[in-house]
Specification:
single chain; alpha/beta; Rossmann fold; 2 domains; eight-stranded mixed β-sheet; elongated
Length: 288
């Protein structure tokens, strides 16, 4: 059998890294899998579940002889991981990540002495509010988008190999520069998480939470995501997130003025435009 990669090392075998390993194994895209991380229980569980074939606590040992290394840690930790593993990586190996913020990570890694390691930033736009390897499943990326963020320094063959891997696990692959990626994700992911956390936090101070039902549950589902992870994402993408917050606050202020002024037609116009836009988006996605 011909594989895209002979050995994949996943550093941070959680929901995303674990799901990628499961999917690549199921589709016959990679031959062998190595899991790495600092938490022994999670690694042992990844081994027991058959997500990986071998585990290592030492990242440097984990990447030896691997022709693909996937970094699945928060951005700042990932930068240090890459700095640590580069001397042990095989010449020509492909290095990628799955982080939600691309600019700081791409700039930091491309500023290192990569030698002959070929780096391509990546971000699968898929996930759930659950975390850890036990939450992983091979269908996670099917009919979802994965964004790769090549630069002028990116090796074309490495880019094509990663594109084939992600398409092989069912994803639609788009190419964006890192800064454009971060602006878009601030609007559609990072800001919504911030709002969900703030809304639940506000509700906890009132008396209405016991009466909340399905609408509140659905709107705030992502507030059950990892607080530690989202703290890091918001700080790593702070400039783009602040711009998104400014734009959102301006729209919210406009709605407040409509409420104060009794501007029913104005409010209905905003609501109708939002409803029609969301309904069209759901239809395009095949979710309606």
């Amino acid at each position: 059998m011909s594989f895209l990669f002979e050995q994949m090392t996943v550093i941070g075998v959680g929901l995303i890294g674990g799901s990628l390993a499961r999917a690549a194994r199921q589709r016959g895209l990679v031959c062998r899998f190595v899991g790495a991380g600092r938490g022994a229980p999670n690694l042992e569980r990844a081994l027991a579940l058959g997500v990986v074939d071998r585990v290592e606590r030492d990242h440097r040992l984990a990447v030896r002889d691997s022709d693909l290394v996937v970094v699945g840690t928060p951005v700042q930790a990932g930068i240090e991981v890459v700095r640590n593993i580069l001397p042990e990586m095989s010449p020509g190996a492909v290095l990628t990540d799955v982080g939600s913020v691309k600019g700081p990570f791409v700039r930091a890694v491309e500023g290192m002495d990569l030698r002959q390691v070929r780096f391509v930033g990546g971000h699968p736009i898929a996930g759930t509010e659950r975390s850890g390897v036990e939450a992983s499943f091979p269908e996670l990326f099917e009919n979802r988008r994965t964004i790769l963020t090549p630069t002028q320094k990116t090796d074309p063959k490495a880019l094509q190999a990663l594109k084939s891997l992600w398409e092989g696990v069912g994803a639609q692959v788009d190419l964006l520069n890192p800064e454009a990626h971060d602006r878009i994700l601030a609007d559609i992911s990072h800001l919504p998480h911030l709002i969900a956390y703030a809304l639940v936090d506000s509700a906890l101070e009132g008396e209405g939470l016991p009466y909340a039902a399905g609408g509140f549950r659905d709107f705030t589902r992502i507030a059950s995501s990892s607080p530690e992870m989202w703290r890091e994402i918001c700080l790593d993408n702070r400039n783009a997130l602040l711009a998104s917050l400014d734009a959102f606050e301006a729209r919210l202020a406009a709605l407040r003025r409509m409420v104060e002024g009794g501007d029913g037609p104005g409010m209905e116009g905003v609501f109708r435009r939002a409803k029609e836009g969301r309904d069209g988006w759901l239809k395009d996605k095949g979710w309606a």
